Amino acid sequence: MFRTKRSALVRRLWRSRAPGGEDEEEGAGGGGGELRGEGATDGRAHGAGGGGGGGGGGGAGRAGCCLGKAARGAKGHHHPRPAAAGAGGAGGAEADLKALTHSVLKKLKERQLELLLQAVESRGGTRTACLLLPGRLDCRLGPGAPAGSQPAQPPSAYSLPLLLCKVFRWPDLRHSSEVKRLCCCESYGKINPELVCCNPHHLSRLCELESPPPPYSRYPMDFLKPTDSQLLLEPGDRSHWCVVAYWEEKTRVGRLYCVQEPSLDIFYDLPQGNGFCLGQLNSDNKSQLVQKVRSKIGCGIQLTREVDGVWVYNRSSYPIFIKSATLDNPDSRTLLVHKVFPGFSIKAFDYEKAYSLRRPNDHEFTQQPWTGFTVQISFVKGWGQCYTRQFISSCPCWLEVIFNSR
Protein backbone atom coordinates (compact mmCIF):
# COMPACT_ATOMS: atom_id res chain seq x y z
CA MET A 1 0.00 0.00 0.00
CA PHE A 2 2.87 2.33 0.87
CA ARG A 3 4.59 1.81 -2.48
CA THR A 4 1.29 2.12 -4.33
CA LYS A 5 0.58 5.53 -2.80
CA ARG A 6 4.06 6.77 -3.62
CA SER A 7 3.72 5.59 -7.21
CA ALA A 8 0.37 7.38 -7.48
CA LEU A 9 1.95 10.61 -6.18
CA VAL A 10 4.76 10.33 -8.73
CA ARG A 11 2.24 9.84 -11.55
CA ARG A 12 0.18 12.82 -10.40
CA LEU A 13 3.29 14.97 -10.27
CA TRP A 14 4.33 14.02 -13.79
CA ARG A 15 0.83 14.79 -15.09
CA SER A 16 1.09 18.21 -13.40
CA ARG A 17 4.28 19.18 -15.23
CA ALA A 18 4.43 22.47 -17.09
CA PRO A 19 3.06 22.49 -20.66
CA GLY A 20 6.07 21.43 -22.70
CA GLY A 21 7.53 22.92 -25.85
CA GLU A 22 8.47 26.52 -26.37
CA ASP A 23 5.96 26.64 -29.22
CA GLU A 24 3.14 26.39 -26.72
CA GLU A 25 4.75 29.00 -24.49
CA GLU A 26 4.94 31.47 -27.37
CA GLY A 27 1.19 31.32 -27.76
CA ALA A 28 0.30 31.31 -24.08
CA GLY A 29 -0.25 34.42 -22.05
CA GLY A 30 -1.24 36.61 -24.98
CA GLY A 31 2.38 37.41 -25.70
CA GLY A 32 3.51 35.86 -28.98
CA GLY A 33 3.14 37.21 -32.48
CA GLU A 34 3.47 40.56 -34.14
CA LEU A 35 3.03 43.96 -32.61
CA ARG A 36 -0.60 44.85 -33.27
CA GLY A 37 -1.71 47.15 -30.48
CA GLU A 38 -3.50 45.76 -27.46
CA GLY A 39 -3.19 42.10 -26.68
CA ALA A 40 -0.06 41.64 -28.81
CA THR A 41 3.66 41.95 -28.34
CA ASP A 42 6.81 41.57 -30.35
CA GLY A 43 9.57 39.13 -29.54
CA ARG A 44 11.29 41.65 -27.31
CA ALA A 45 8.19 41.74 -25.15
CA HIS A 46 8.46 43.66 -21.90
CA GLY A 47 9.05 47.17 -23.25
CA ALA A 48 6.23 49.61 -23.67
CA GLY A 49 5.10 47.63 -26.66
CA GLY A 50 3.98 44.46 -24.89
CA GLY A 51 0.49 43.02 -24.93
CA GLY A 52 -1.75 44.48 -22.34
CA GLY A 53 -4.82 42.37 -22.59
CA GLY A 54 -3.20 38.99 -22.89
CA GLY A 55 -2.44 36.66 -20.10
CA GLY A 56 -4.67 33.90 -21.21
CA GLY A 57 -4.33 32.02 -17.98
CA GLY A 58 -1.07 30.18 -18.58
CA GLY A 59 1.99 32.26 -18.50
CA ALA A 60 3.82 30.42 -15.74
CA GLY A 61 6.13 28.96 -18.32
CA ARG A 62 6.58 32.11 -20.40
CA ALA A 63 10.09 32.50 -21.65
CA GLY A 64 10.27 36.22 -22.11
CA CYS A 65 9.83 39.60 -20.58
CA CYS A 66 10.72 43.12 -21.43
CA LEU A 67 13.96 43.37 -23.30
CA GLY A 68 15.26 40.47 -21.24
CA LYS A 69 17.69 37.88 -22.53
CA ALA A 70 15.12 35.13 -22.07
CA ALA A 71 12.76 36.95 -24.41
CA ARG A 72 15.42 37.33 -27.08
CA GLY A 73 16.31 33.67 -26.87
CA ALA A 74 12.69 32.58 -27.02
CA LYS A 75 11.92 34.19 -30.37
CA GLY A 76 12.68 32.15 -33.42
CA HIS A 77 13.87 29.11 -31.49
CA HIS A 78 10.84 26.87 -31.39
CA HIS A 79 11.16 23.25 -30.43
CA PRO A 80 7.74 21.69 -31.05
CA ARG A 81 6.69 18.97 -28.70
CA PRO A 82 6.04 15.85 -30.80
CA ALA A 83 2.89 13.82 -30.53
CA ALA A 84 4.75 10.65 -29.70
CA ALA A 85 7.43 10.94 -27.08
CA GLY A 86 10.37 8.68 -27.59
CA ALA A 87 10.22 8.83 -31.37
CA GLY A 88 13.67 10.39 -31.45
CA GLY A 89 14.77 14.02 -31.53
CA ALA A 90 12.72 16.18 -29.19
CA GLY A 91 10.61 13.17 -28.27
CA GLY A 92 13.73 11.36 -27.13
CA ALA A 93 14.71 14.38 -25.04
CA GLU A 94 11.31 14.33 -23.36
CA ALA A 95 11.65 10.62 -22.70
CA ASP A 96 15.05 11.28 -21.10
CA LEU A 97 13.54 14.04 -18.99
CA LYS A 98 10.70 11.79 -17.89
CA ALA A 99 13.08 9.00 -16.91
CA LEU A 100 15.32 11.38 -14.97
CA THR A 101 12.37 13.04 -13.21
CA HIS A 102 10.87 9.69 -12.19
CA SER A 103 14.22 8.50 -10.86
CA VAL A 104 14.48 11.64 -8.70
CA LEU A 105 10.88 11.57 -7.48
CA LYS A 106 11.05 7.90 -6.53
CA LYS A 107 13.87 8.73 -4.11
CA LEU A 108 11.71 11.19 -2.19
CA LYS A 109 9.76 10.24 0.90
CA GLU A 110 5.99 10.17 0.78
CA ARG A 111 5.68 13.34 2.84
CA GLN A 112 8.10 15.13 0.52
CA LEU A 113 6.11 14.02 -2.52
CA GLU A 114 2.90 15.32 -0.93
CA LEU A 115 4.53 18.69 -0.19
CA LEU A 116 5.81 18.98 -3.76
CA LEU A 117 2.42 18.01 -5.18
CA GLN A 118 0.68 20.63 -3.04
CA ALA A 119 3.04 23.33 -4.30
CA VAL A 120 2.70 22.26 -7.94
CA GLU A 121 -1.08 21.84 -7.99
CA SER A 122 -1.70 25.14 -6.17
CA ARG A 123 0.63 26.89 -8.66
CA GLY A 124 2.18 28.80 -5.77
CA GLY A 125 -1.17 30.17 -4.59
CA THR A 126 -0.85 28.34 -1.29
CA ARG A 127 2.13 28.95 0.94
CA THR A 128 4.02 25.68 1.16
CA ALA A 129 7.00 24.63 3.22
CA CYS A 130 10.51 24.26 1.87
CA LEU A 131 11.40 20.93 0.26
CA LEU A 132 14.91 20.45 1.66
CA LEU A 133 17.11 18.00 -0.25
CA PRO A 134 20.90 17.48 -0.56
CA GLY A 135 22.35 20.53 -2.26
CA ARG A 136 25.34 18.86 -3.93
CA LEU A 137 23.38 16.33 -5.94
CA ASP A 138 23.40 17.03 -9.70
CA CYS A 139 21.14 15.36 -12.26
CA ARG A 140 22.46 14.69 -15.75
CA LEU A 141 20.09 14.92 -18.67
CA GLY A 142 21.17 13.86 -22.14
CA PRO A 143 21.29 11.05 -24.68
CA GLY A 144 23.10 7.90 -23.74
CA ALA A 145 25.77 6.33 -25.92
CA PRO A 146 26.64 2.72 -26.71
CA ALA A 147 29.56 1.22 -24.86
CA GLY A 148 32.90 2.34 -26.26
CA SER A 149 31.49 5.37 -28.10
CA GLN A 150 31.03 9.03 -27.28
CA PRO A 151 27.54 10.62 -27.10
CA ALA A 152 26.71 13.09 -29.86
CA GLN A 153 26.19 15.83 -27.26
CA PRO A 154 27.47 15.96 -23.67
CA PRO A 155 24.71 15.54 -21.08
CA SER A 156 23.42 18.65 -19.33
CA ALA A 157 23.90 18.84 -15.57
CA TYR A 158 21.07 20.29 -13.50
CA SER A 159 20.88 20.88 -9.79
CA LEU A 160 17.77 19.44 -8.15
CA PRO A 161 16.06 22.86 -7.75
CA LEU A 162 16.76 23.68 -11.40
CA LEU A 163 15.48 20.31 -12.62
CA LEU A 164 12.19 20.61 -10.72
CA CYS A 165 11.74 24.19 -11.96
CA LYS A 166 12.34 22.98 -15.52
CA VAL A 167 9.79 20.18 -15.16
CA PHE A 168 7.04 21.98 -13.26
CA ARG A 169 7.38 25.64 -14.29
CA TRP A 170 9.70 26.59 -17.18
CA PRO A 171 10.56 23.86 -19.72
CA ASP A 172 13.04 26.19 -21.48
CA LEU A 173 15.07 26.81 -18.31
CA ARG A 174 18.78 26.09 -18.81
CA HIS A 175 20.88 27.72 -16.10
CA SER A 176 20.62 28.66 -12.44
CA SER A 177 21.45 32.28 -13.30
CA GLU A 178 17.99 32.55 -14.89
CA VAL A 179 16.14 32.12 -11.59
CA LYS A 180 15.97 34.02 -8.31
CA ARG A 181 15.10 32.54 -4.94
CA LEU A 182 12.22 34.20 -3.09
CA CYS A 183 12.94 35.72 0.30
CA CYS A 184 10.30 33.49 1.96
CA CYS A 185 12.53 30.46 1.28
CA GLU A 186 14.85 28.99 3.93
CA SER A 187 17.63 28.77 1.34
CA TYR A 188 17.40 32.49 0.50
CA GLY A 189 20.80 34.14 0.80
CA LYS A 190 22.65 30.93 1.69
CA ILE A 191 25.74 29.91 -0.28
CA ASN A 192 26.30 26.18 -0.89
CA PRO A 193 24.14 24.88 1.98
CA GLU A 194 24.12 21.20 2.93
CA LEU A 195 20.37 21.09 2.28
CA VAL A 196 18.78 23.27 -0.38
CA CYS A 197 15.10 24.01 -0.97
CA CYS A 198 13.81 22.35 -4.14
CA ASN A 199 10.26 23.74 -3.99
CA PRO A 200 9.83 25.11 -7.55
CA HIS A 201 7.45 27.80 -6.33
CA HIS A 202 10.08 29.19 -3.98
CA LEU A 203 11.94 30.48 -7.03
CA SER A 204 11.05 33.00 -9.71
CA ARG A 205 12.26 33.59 -13.24
CA LEU A 206 14.70 36.48 -13.32
CA CYS A 207 13.95 39.46 -15.52
CA GLU A 208 17.25 40.76 -16.88
CA LEU A 209 17.06 44.04 -18.73
CA GLU A 210 19.23 45.13 -21.59
CA SER A 211 20.34 48.59 -22.63
CA PRO A 212 19.90 50.73 -24.53
CA PRO A 213 16.14 50.29 -24.96
CA PRO A 214 14.49 50.79 -28.36
CA PRO A 215 13.52 54.41 -29.01
CA TYR A 216 9.92 53.62 -29.95
CA SER A 217 9.09 52.49 -26.43
CA ARG A 218 10.43 55.51 -24.62
CA TYR A 219 8.13 57.43 -22.32
CA PRO A 220 8.56 61.14 -21.51
CA MET A 221 9.77 61.85 -17.98
CA ASP A 222 7.26 64.64 -17.49
CA PHE A 223 4.40 62.12 -17.78
CA LEU A 224 5.18 61.18 -14.17
CA LYS A 225 3.11 63.67 -12.24
CA PRO A 226 2.78 63.58 -8.43
CA THR A 227 -0.60 62.27 -7.30
CA ASP A 228 -2.61 63.04 -4.19
CA SER A 229 -1.18 59.84 -2.66
CA GLN A 230 2.28 61.43 -2.64
CA LEU A 231 1.00 64.75 -1.35
CA LEU A 232 -0.72 63.07 1.62
CA LEU A 233 2.50 61.50 2.93
CA GLU A 234 4.11 62.94 6.04
CA PRO A 235 7.76 63.73 5.22
CA GLY A 236 8.94 62.90 8.75
CA ASP A 237 7.15 59.54 9.05
CA ARG A 238 9.73 56.75 8.70
CA SER A 239 7.93 53.93 10.51
CA HIS A 240 7.26 52.30 7.12
CA TRP A 241 9.52 51.75 4.13
CA CYS A 242 6.84 52.29 1.48
CA VAL A 243 3.20 53.18 0.98
CA VAL A 244 0.88 51.49 -1.53
CA ALA A 245 -2.15 53.10 -3.16
CA TYR A 246 -4.64 51.15 -5.27
CA TRP A 247 -6.31 52.91 -8.19
CA GLU A 248 -9.11 52.09 -10.58
CA GLU A 249 -8.64 54.39 -13.55
CA LYS A 250 -8.50 57.92 -12.10
CA THR A 251 -10.00 57.06 -8.72
CA ARG A 252 -8.06 55.87 -5.71
CA VAL A 253 -9.84 53.04 -3.91
CA GLY A 254 -9.39 52.58 -0.17
CA ARG A 255 -6.80 54.12 2.11
CA LEU A 256 -3.04 54.23 1.74
CA TYR A 257 -1.44 50.97 2.87
CA CYS A 258 1.73 51.50 4.92
CA VAL A 259 4.25 48.66 4.63
CA GLN A 260 6.50 47.83 7.58
CA GLU A 261 7.34 44.16 6.99
CA PRO A 262 10.10 43.33 4.47
CA SER A 263 7.62 41.43 2.26
CA LEU A 264 4.07 42.25 1.20
CA ASP A 265 1.55 40.24 -0.82
CA ILE A 266 -0.85 42.39 -2.86
CA PHE A 267 -3.68 40.25 -4.19
CA TYR A 268 -7.37 40.05 -5.01
CA ASP A 269 -8.03 36.39 -4.25
CA LEU A 270 -5.32 34.35 -2.55
CA PRO A 271 -5.78 31.18 -0.44
CA GLN A 272 -4.36 31.80 3.02
CA GLY A 273 -3.58 35.33 1.89
CA ASN A 274 -1.89 37.70 4.31
CA GLY A 275 -1.23 41.25 3.18
CA PHE A 276 -3.03 43.89 1.11
CA CYS A 277 -6.26 42.29 -0.15
CA LEU A 278 -7.75 44.39 -2.95
CA GLY A 279 -10.91 42.28 -2.90
CA GLN A 280 -11.85 43.70 0.50
CA LEU A 281 -11.83 47.30 -0.69
CA ASN A 282 -15.14 49.00 -1.40
CA SER A 283 -15.22 50.16 -5.00
CA ASP A 284 -18.02 52.12 -6.65
CA ASN A 285 -16.65 51.55 -10.14
CA LYS A 286 -19.25 49.65 -12.20
CA SER A 287 -17.19 49.47 -15.37
CA GLN A 288 -17.26 45.99 -16.87
CA LEU A 289 -13.62 46.31 -17.90
CA VAL A 290 -12.55 47.23 -14.37
CA GLN A 291 -14.51 44.32 -12.93
CA LYS A 292 -13.04 41.94 -15.50
CA VAL A 293 -9.46 43.01 -14.83
CA ARG A 294 -10.08 42.98 -11.07
CA SER A 295 -11.14 39.34 -11.30
CA LYS A 296 -7.88 38.49 -13.11
CA ILE A 297 -5.58 39.91 -10.43
CA GLY A 298 -5.83 36.64 -8.50
CA CYS A 299 -2.64 35.98 -6.51
CA GLY A 300 -1.34 39.39 -7.58
CA ILE A 301 2.22 40.38 -6.80
CA GLN A 302 4.76 40.09 -4.02
CA LEU A 303 6.70 43.21 -3.07
CA THR A 304 9.94 42.60 -1.14
CA ARG A 305 12.63 44.89 0.20
CA GLU A 306 16.00 43.19 -0.15
CA VAL A 307 19.64 44.17 0.24
CA ASP A 308 20.04 45.39 -3.34
CA GLY A 309 16.66 47.09 -3.71
CA VAL A 310 12.94 46.37 -3.99
CA TRP A 311 11.79 43.40 -6.05
CA VAL A 312 8.39 42.67 -7.57
CA TYR A 313 7.36 39.06 -8.21
CA ASN A 314 4.39 38.45 -10.50
CA ARG A 315 2.37 35.68 -8.82
CA SER A 316 -0.70 36.07 -11.01
CA SER A 317 -1.61 34.32 -14.25
CA TYR A 318 -1.46 37.52 -16.32
CA PRO A 319 1.25 40.07 -17.16
CA ILE A 320 1.87 43.16 -15.10
CA PHE A 321 3.37 46.43 -16.34
CA ILE A 322 5.88 48.49 -14.37
CA LYS A 323 7.31 51.98 -14.73
CA SER A 324 10.19 53.06 -12.50
CA ALA A 325 12.89 55.69 -12.83
CA THR A 326 15.58 53.24 -11.71
CA LEU A 327 14.79 50.73 -14.46
CA ASP A 328 15.92 53.07 -17.22
CA ASN A 329 19.22 54.54 -18.35
CA PRO A 330 20.37 57.15 -15.76
CA ASP A 331 21.16 59.65 -18.54
CA SER A 332 17.75 59.29 -20.15
CA ARG A 333 14.95 61.85 -19.96
CA THR A 334 12.37 59.18 -20.69
CA LEU A 335 11.01 56.12 -18.92
CA LEU A 336 10.01 52.69 -20.19
CA VAL A 337 6.93 50.71 -19.34
CA HIS A 338 8.18 47.18 -18.65
CA LYS A 339 6.05 44.10 -19.17
CA VAL A 340 6.63 41.32 -16.63
CA PHE A 341 5.18 37.90 -17.35
CA PRO A 342 3.75 35.51 -14.73
CA GLY A 343 6.39 33.81 -12.63
CA PHE A 344 9.00 36.51 -13.30
CA SER A 345 10.72 38.82 -10.80
CA ILE A 346 12.15 42.25 -11.55
CA LYS A 347 14.12 44.67 -9.41
CA ALA A 348 11.63 47.49 -9.64
CA PHE A 349 13.45 49.99 -7.45
CA ASP A 350 17.11 50.64 -6.65
CA TYR A 351 17.81 53.05 -3.78
CA GLU A 352 21.34 53.91 -4.92
CA LYS A 353 20.20 54.72 -8.45
CA ALA A 354 17.32 56.77 -7.09
CA TYR A 355 19.69 58.89 -5.00
CA SER A 356 22.02 59.45 -7.94
CA LEU A 357 19.08 60.45 -10.15
CA ARG A 358 17.79 62.81 -7.49
CA ARG A 359 20.74 65.14 -7.95
CA PRO A 360 19.60 67.72 -10.55
CA ASN A 361 21.74 67.65 -13.67
CA ASP A 362 20.31 70.71 -15.30
CA HIS A 363 17.59 73.34 -15.10
CA GLU A 364 15.01 71.03 -16.70
CA PHE A 365 15.21 68.57 -13.81
CA THR A 366 14.36 71.24 -11.24
CA GLN A 367 11.13 72.30 -12.94
CA GLN A 368 9.10 69.23 -11.89
CA PRO A 369 8.53 67.74 -8.42
CA TRP A 370 10.79 64.72 -7.95
CA THR A 371 8.90 61.45 -8.42
CA GLY A 372 11.86 59.07 -8.62
CA PHE A 373 10.85 57.28 -5.43
CA THR A 374 7.57 56.15 -6.99
CA VAL A 375 6.82 52.97 -8.95
CA GLN A 376 3.62 52.43 -10.94
CA ILE A 377 2.27 48.93 -11.60
CA SER A 378 -0.72 48.05 -13.79
CA PHE A 379 -2.45 44.68 -13.71
CA VAL A 380 -3.17 42.92 -17.03
CA LYS A 381 -3.41 46.10 -19.15
CA GLY A 382 -0.48 48.09 -20.45
CA TRP A 383 -0.21 51.72 -21.43
CA GLY A 384 1.94 53.83 -23.72
CA GLN A 385 2.44 54.36 -27.45
CA CYS A 386 1.52 50.80 -28.44
CA TYR A 387 -1.81 50.83 -26.59
CA THR A 388 -5.05 52.69 -26.70
CA ARG A 389 -4.21 53.91 -23.18
CA GLN A 390 -1.53 56.57 -23.16
CA PHE A 391 -1.50 57.16 -19.40
CA ILE A 392 -1.65 54.81 -16.45
CA SER A 393 -4.67 56.72 -15.14
CA SER A 394 -6.59 55.11 -18.02
CA CYS A 395 -5.69 51.58 -16.86
CA PRO A 396 -8.48 49.67 -15.10
CA CYS A 397 -6.53 48.50 -12.03
CA TRP A 398 -3.14 49.79 -10.98
CA LEU A 399 -0.88 50.42 -8.00
CA GLU A 400 1.25 53.32 -6.93
CA VAL A 401 4.15 52.41 -4.64
CA ILE A 402 5.86 55.34 -2.89
CA PHE A 403 9.17 54.63 -1.14
CA ASN A 404 10.70 56.38 1.82
CA SER A 405 14.20 57.69 1.20
CA ARG A 406 15.80 55.41 3.77
Automatic annotation (TrEMBL):
Q: Does the keyword Acyltransferase apply?
A: no
Composition bias (Gly residues) maps to 46-57
GO biological process terms, semicolon-separated? regulation of DNA-templated transcription
Pfam family for this entry, one: MH1
Q: Which InterPro entries does the UniProt entry name for this protein?
A: Dwarfin, MAD_homology1_Dwarfin-type, MAD_homology_MH1, SMAD-like_dom_sf, SMAD_dom_Dwarfin-type, SMAD_FHA_dom_sf, SMAD_MH1_sf
User: What UniProt keywords apply to this chain's record, in alphabetical order?
Assistant: Cytoplasm, Metal-binding, Nucleus, Transcription, Transcription regulation, Zinc
Where is the segment annotated Disordered?
A: 14-57, 72-91
Q: Which GO terms describe its molecular function?
A: metal ion binding
Principal location class: cytoplasm
Q: Say yes or no: keyword Metal-binding present.
A: yes
Bias type Basic residues, positions: 72-81
**Localization per Swiss-Prot or TrEMBL:** Cytoplasm; Nucleus
**Gene Ontology terms: cellular component:** cytoplasm; nucleus; transcription regulator complex
Q: Which domain of life is it from?
A: Eukaryota
- Which SUPFAM superfamilies does the record cross-reference, listed alphabetically? SMAD MH1 domain, SMAD/FHA domain
Renumbered to this chain, the Basic and acidic residues biased-composition regions fall at 35-45
Domain MH2 residue range list: 241-406
Name the family: Belongs to the dwarfin/SMAD family.
Provide the protein name: Mothers against decapentaplegic homolog
Q: Which organism is it from?
A: Canis lupus familiaris (Dog)
- Identify the gene encoding this protein: SMAD7
